[in-house]
Amino acid sequence: MKINNIKDVFFDLDHTLWDFDKNSALTFEKIFSLNNIEVPLQEFVSHYEPINLKYWKLYREGLIEKEDLRFVRLNETFQAINYKIEEHIIYKLSEDYITYLTSFNYLFENTHDILDYLSLNYNLHIITNGFDEVQHKKLTNSNIIKYFKTVTNSEMVGVKKPNPKIFKYALNSAKANISQSIMIGDSYEADILGAMDVGMNVVFFDTRKTKISEDVIQIDALSALKRYL
Protein backbone atom coordinates (compact mmCIF):
# COMPACT_ATOMS: atom_id res chain seq x y z
CA MET A 1 0.00 0.00 0.00
CA LYS A 2 1.46 3.33 -1.09
CA ILE A 3 2.03 6.08 1.46
CA ASN A 4 0.40 9.14 -0.06
CA ASN A 5 1.49 12.76 -0.04
CA ILE A 6 5.21 12.14 0.67
CA LYS A 7 7.65 14.62 -0.85
CA ASP A 8 10.83 14.24 1.22
CA VAL A 9 12.52 10.95 2.12
CA PHE A 10 15.13 10.94 4.90
CA PHE A 11 17.57 8.02 5.23
CA ASP A 12 19.91 6.95 7.98
CA LEU A 13 23.32 5.99 6.53
CA ASP A 14 25.13 3.29 8.54
CA HIS A 15 23.39 -0.09 8.66
CA THR A 16 20.67 1.28 6.33
CA LEU A 17 22.39 2.15 3.05
CA TRP A 18 26.09 1.75 3.86
CA ASP A 19 26.91 -1.80 4.99
CA PHE A 20 28.73 -0.88 8.18
CA ASP A 21 29.36 -4.41 9.47
CA LYS A 22 30.90 -5.67 6.24
CA ASN A 23 33.05 -2.58 5.70
CA SER A 24 34.10 -2.56 9.34
CA ALA A 25 35.25 -6.19 9.22
CA LEU A 26 37.33 -5.50 6.11
CA THR A 27 38.85 -2.49 7.85
CA PHE A 28 39.88 -4.57 10.85
CA GLU A 29 41.43 -7.14 8.56
CA LYS A 30 43.53 -4.38 6.96
CA ILE A 31 44.64 -2.55 10.10
CA PHE A 32 45.48 -5.77 11.94
CA SER A 33 47.72 -6.70 9.04
CA LEU A 34 49.36 -3.26 9.00
CA ASN A 35 50.03 -3.38 12.74
CA ASN A 36 51.00 -7.07 12.93
CA ILE A 37 48.09 -7.94 15.21
CA GLU A 38 47.38 -11.66 15.03
CA VAL A 39 43.85 -12.32 16.23
CA PRO A 40 41.09 -14.53 14.79
CA LEU A 41 39.17 -11.94 12.77
CA GLN A 42 35.71 -13.52 12.95
CA GLU A 43 35.96 -14.03 16.70
CA PHE A 44 37.06 -10.42 17.16
CA VAL A 45 34.27 -9.05 14.96
CA SER A 46 31.59 -11.19 16.62
CA HIS A 47 32.48 -9.58 19.96
CA TYR A 48 33.11 -6.11 18.55
CA GLU A 49 29.72 -5.65 16.89
CA PRO A 50 27.54 -5.80 20.06
CA ILE A 51 30.16 -3.93 22.08
CA ASN A 52 30.23 -1.17 19.47
CA LEU A 53 26.42 -0.90 19.54
CA LYS A 54 26.48 -0.69 23.34
CA TYR A 55 28.92 2.21 23.34
CA TRP A 56 27.18 3.97 20.46
CA LYS A 57 24.03 3.97 22.61
CA LEU A 58 26.01 5.64 25.41
CA TYR A 59 27.44 8.11 22.89
CA ARG A 60 23.92 8.90 21.59
CA GLU A 61 22.83 9.57 25.15
CA GLY A 62 25.78 11.91 25.73
CA LEU A 63 27.33 9.65 28.39
CA ILE A 64 30.70 9.24 26.65
CA GLU A 65 32.73 11.40 24.27
CA LYS A 66 33.78 10.50 20.74
CA GLU A 67 37.43 9.88 21.69
CA ASP A 68 36.37 7.58 24.55
CA LEU A 69 34.04 5.65 22.24
CA ARG A 70 36.82 4.99 19.76
CA PHE A 71 39.13 3.59 22.45
CA VAL A 72 36.81 1.66 24.78
CA ARG A 73 35.04 -0.33 22.06
CA LEU A 74 38.38 -1.75 20.92
CA ASN A 75 39.80 -2.19 24.40
CA GLU A 76 36.77 -4.12 25.62
CA THR A 77 36.79 -6.34 22.52
CA PHE A 78 40.43 -7.30 23.04
CA GLN A 79 39.61 -8.09 26.67
CA ALA A 80 36.68 -10.24 25.57
CA ILE A 81 38.94 -12.43 23.42
CA ASN A 82 41.71 -12.45 26.07
CA TYR A 83 44.24 -10.75 23.82
CA LYS A 84 46.85 -8.72 25.69
CA ILE A 85 47.66 -5.45 23.96
CA GLU A 86 49.21 -2.17 25.10
CA GLU A 87 47.08 0.94 25.29
CA HIS A 88 49.17 2.96 22.85
CA ILE A 89 48.60 0.29 20.21
CA ILE A 90 44.84 0.42 20.78
CA TYR A 91 44.98 4.19 20.26
CA LYS A 92 46.94 3.63 17.05
CA LEU A 93 44.40 1.05 15.88
CA SER A 94 41.52 3.42 16.67
CA GLU A 95 43.12 6.09 14.47
CA ASP A 96 43.87 3.62 11.68
CA TYR A 97 40.31 2.34 11.83
CA ILE A 98 38.90 5.80 11.08
CA THR A 99 41.53 6.36 8.39
CA TYR A 100 40.80 3.16 6.47
CA LEU A 101 37.09 2.63 7.16
CA THR A 102 35.99 4.70 4.18
CA SER A 103 38.30 2.83 1.80
CA PHE A 104 35.70 0.03 1.84
CA ASN A 105 32.29 1.03 0.57
CA TYR A 106 29.95 -1.91 0.25
CA LEU A 107 26.30 -0.89 0.23
CA PHE A 108 23.24 -2.94 1.05
CA GLU A 109 21.74 -4.82 -1.86
CA ASN A 110 19.75 -2.63 -4.30
CA THR A 111 20.88 0.66 -2.74
CA HIS A 112 21.63 2.35 -6.07
CA ASP A 113 18.49 0.90 -7.62
CA ILE A 114 16.18 2.19 -4.89
CA LEU A 115 17.86 5.60 -4.80
CA ASP A 116 17.52 5.88 -8.58
CA TYR A 117 13.85 4.93 -8.27
CA LEU A 118 13.05 7.29 -5.39
CA SER A 119 15.01 10.27 -6.75
CA LEU A 120 12.62 10.48 -9.71
CA ASN A 121 9.70 11.50 -7.48
CA TYR A 122 11.08 12.55 -4.10
CA ASN A 123 13.70 14.80 -2.52
CA LEU A 124 16.19 12.57 -0.72
CA HIS A 125 18.12 13.45 2.45
CA ILE A 126 20.44 11.92 5.07
CA ILE A 127 20.20 12.18 8.87
CA THR A 128 23.11 10.44 10.60
CA ASN A 129 24.70 10.20 14.04
CA GLY A 130 28.04 9.33 12.45
CA PHE A 131 31.16 11.47 12.68
CA ASP A 132 31.26 14.40 10.27
CA GLU A 133 34.72 13.69 8.86
CA VAL A 134 33.81 10.06 8.12
CA GLN A 135 30.23 10.27 6.86
CA HIS A 136 30.96 12.63 3.98
CA LYS A 137 33.70 10.29 2.75
CA LYS A 138 31.33 7.31 2.95
CA LEU A 139 28.75 9.10 0.82
CA THR A 140 31.33 10.30 -1.68
CA ASN A 141 33.40 7.13 -1.98
CA SER A 142 30.34 4.91 -2.37
CA ASN A 143 29.05 7.24 -5.11
CA ILE A 144 25.68 7.97 -3.51
CA ILE A 145 26.14 11.57 -2.39
CA LYS A 146 24.68 12.72 -5.73
CA TYR A 147 21.23 11.52 -4.68
CA PHE A 148 20.88 13.68 -1.57
CA LYS A 149 19.69 17.27 -1.38
CA THR A 150 20.81 17.68 2.24
CA VAL A 151 23.01 15.77 4.70
CA THR A 152 22.53 16.37 8.43
CA ASN A 153 24.88 14.84 10.99
CA SER A 154 24.82 15.00 14.77
CA GLU A 155 28.08 16.92 15.11
CA MET A 156 26.62 19.67 12.93
CA VAL A 157 23.56 20.01 15.19
CA GLY A 158 25.14 19.27 18.56
CA VAL A 159 22.67 16.51 19.44
CA LYS A 160 22.12 12.95 18.24
CA LYS A 161 19.08 10.98 17.13
CA PRO A 162 16.58 10.38 18.74
CA ASN A 163 16.77 13.97 20.03
CA PRO A 164 13.98 15.88 18.23
CA LYS A 165 16.34 18.80 17.53
CA ILE A 166 18.27 16.87 14.87
CA PHE A 167 15.08 15.91 13.01
CA LYS A 168 13.77 19.47 13.18
CA TYR A 169 17.13 20.78 11.97
CA ALA A 170 17.10 18.34 9.04
CA LEU A 171 13.51 19.17 8.13
CA ASN A 172 14.27 22.88 8.24
CA SER A 173 17.41 22.44 6.10
CA ALA A 174 15.38 20.49 3.57
CA LYS A 175 12.50 23.00 3.72
CA ALA A 176 10.33 19.94 4.20
CA ASN A 177 6.87 19.61 5.71
CA ILE A 178 6.74 17.09 8.58
CA SER A 179 3.51 15.47 7.38
CA GLN A 180 5.00 15.03 3.89
CA SER A 181 8.27 13.51 5.14
CA ILE A 182 9.33 9.97 5.95
CA MET A 183 12.33 8.57 7.86
CA ILE A 184 13.91 5.24 6.91
CA GLY A 185 16.43 3.71 9.30
CA ASP A 186 17.68 0.61 11.08
CA SER A 187 17.65 1.83 14.69
CA TYR A 188 14.21 1.49 16.24
CA GLU A 189 15.15 3.82 19.09
CA ALA A 190 17.17 6.46 17.23
CA ASP A 191 15.53 6.54 13.79
CA ILE A 192 11.99 5.28 14.21
CA LEU A 193 10.93 6.47 17.66
CA GLY A 194 12.90 9.67 17.19
CA ALA A 195 11.20 10.51 13.89
CA MET A 196 7.75 9.50 15.17
CA ASP A 197 8.26 11.81 18.14
CA VAL A 198 8.34 14.83 15.82
CA GLY A 199 5.45 13.58 13.68
CA MET A 200 7.25 12.06 10.70
CA ASN A 201 6.15 8.95 8.82
CA VAL A 202 8.59 6.04 9.27
CA VAL A 203 9.82 2.79 7.76
CA PHE A 204 11.93 0.47 9.92
CA PHE A 205 14.67 -1.29 7.90
CA ASP A 206 15.63 -4.36 9.89
CA THR A 207 17.37 -7.43 8.52
CA ARG A 208 17.10 -9.14 11.94
CA LYS A 209 13.26 -9.13 11.78
CA THR A 210 12.87 -7.69 15.26
CA LYS A 211 9.35 -7.81 16.67
CA ILE A 212 7.97 -4.28 16.94
CA SER A 213 4.61 -2.51 16.93
CA GLU A 214 2.38 -3.65 14.08
CA ASP A 215 1.59 0.01 13.41
CA VAL A 216 5.13 0.58 12.07
CA ILE A 217 6.03 -0.47 8.52
CA GLN A 218 8.94 -2.92 8.69
CA ILE A 219 11.06 -4.13 5.77
CA ASP A 220 14.12 -6.37 5.53
CA ALA A 221 15.20 -5.36 1.99
CA LEU A 222 15.53 -1.89 0.48
CA SER A 223 13.73 -3.02 -2.66
CA ALA A 224 10.58 -3.42 -0.54
CA LEU A 225 10.32 0.38 -0.36
CA LYS A 226 8.77 0.26 -3.82
CA ARG A 227 5.61 -1.14 -2.20
CA TYR A 228 5.20 2.01 -0.14
CA LEU A 229 6.76 4.85 -2.15
Précis, in short:
It comes from Algibacter mikhailovii. The protein is 48% helix and 13% strand.
Outline the structure in words.
It is a single chain. With 229 residues, this protein is of the alpha/beta class. It is built from nine helices and six strands. The protein has two domains: 134 residues, Rossmann fold, CATH 3.40.50; 82 residues, Orthogonal Bundle (DNA polymerase, domain 1), CATH 1.10.150. Strand 2, helix 6 and strand 3 form a beta-alpha-beta unit. The chain is elongated, with a radius of gyration of 18 Å. The model has no long low-confidence stretch (mean pLDDT 96).
Q: What's the N-to-C terminus distance?
A: 9 Å
- Give the CATH level 1 class of the largest domain: Alpha Beta
Level-2 CATH architecture of the largest domain = 3-Layer(aba) Sandwich
| Beta content | 5-15%
Main sheet: strands, sense, barrel: 6 strands, parallel
The succession of helices and strands, N to C, reads EHHHHHEHEHHEHEE
Quickly list its features.
229 residues, alpha/beta, Rossmann fold, DNA polymerase, domain 1, 2 domains, 6-stranded parallel sheet, 6 strands, elongated, HAD-like_sf, HAD-SF_hydro_IA_YjjG/PynA
Topology of helices and strands:
Blueprint: E1 8-11, H1 20-34, H2 41-60, H3 66-80, H4 87-101, H5 111-119, E2 123-128, H6 132-141, E3 148-153, H7 154-157, H8 164-174, E4 181-185, H9 188-197, E5 201-205, E6 217-219
Helix pairs in contact: 1-2, 1-4, 2-3, 3-4
